[in-house]
Amino acid sequence: MQYKISLPDNYDMNVIRQRVADNGHRTDGFQDLIFKAYLISEKRDSSKSCNEYSPLYIWQNNDGMNKFIFDGYYDNILSSFGWQKINIGIPITCCLGK
User: What CATH number belongs to 2-87?
Assistant: First the structure.
């Protein structure tokens, strides 16, 4: 599951970094969550890139994912950025090394 939040070119991406530092731990141990990453793309003066914040979650099954989306845990995103299109894919395999 991944959603991409497009942000204005002049958006201070340190706000997103602080958001992740302050809130990222809240999904530690979340039901059925195998892996999470908070991806950031940052606009550079001379590039065609843009400011984006794209959380990525890999779930063991849809129970935890549905709980996250529909039982209030996604509300922090809704209140900050509005509804975002959620991309849902089914991984064939996920190997996490130590």
Answer: 3.30.70
